[in-house]
Write a structure and sequence with these properties.
about 50% helix, four-stranded parallel β-sheet, 7 helices, alpha/beta, about 10% strand, Rossmann fold
Length: about 120
């Protein structure tokens, strides 16, 4: 292609490396995406799927946002100093500011990270 193709996950992982040393990944799957793991390398601190969340629509269900906060809290307790949101649906529910306020760590939104990379590629 004649235009850059930017993956939201790999862009978020790259931004995360500029913000922290141990990156915890929150998504809707049991494992962090392979592209995210590849970029993070030894800086990968672990991944978590919020309890009861298996698809993006579960994020908007009652208790969805608190389940994300709980999963993020566990990652921080296990040593993560930065969080990476590995699902663009987490952008949709606007969870980043809440996580940053409650947990006092940087949280990287994949949609914003991809936009940042696209702005440099343009």
């Amino acid at each position: 292609m004649d235009i850059p193709v930017i993956g939201a996950g790999s862009a978020a992982a790259a931004v995360s490396l500029g913000l922290g040393r141990r990156v915890g990944v929150i998504g809707i799957r049991d494992q962090a995406p392979p592209a995210v793991r590849a970029v993070l390398g030894d800086h990968f601190a672990g991944s978590a799927r919020p309890n009861g969340v298996h698809r993006t629509t579960d994020l908007t269900a009652p208790g969805g946002r608190e389940a994300v906060v709980d999963a993020a809290s566990e990652l921080i307790a296990s040593g993560a100093d930065t969080l990476l949101l590995a699902c663009t649906g987490l952008n949709t529910i606007g969870i980043r500011p809440l996580l940053e306020e409650r947990l006092r760590v940087p949280v990287v939104d994949p949609v914003l990270a991809a936009g940042l990379m696209a702005s440099y590629a343009a």
